[in-house]
Fold:
Amino acid sequence: MTVSELTTLIRSSLNQTPLRAVTVQGEVGSFKHYQPSGYWYFNLKDAESTVSCVMYRQNALRTKIQPRDGDQGR
Structure:
């Protein structure tokens, strides 16, 4: 499969399910706050899977807590 074929497949799948209304619950892992950009990088994981995440500066500034590894996130 080419990169273009893969991205087309992913785009097609995402278009079928609007993700704006999805809430994901999991344990925070590998949390890193990069000061120069203000971005937060972390994983959300459960017993079977892990999703890599990024929170951009403007959203991180509005968040009242700073996650730590092991926190339960949603």
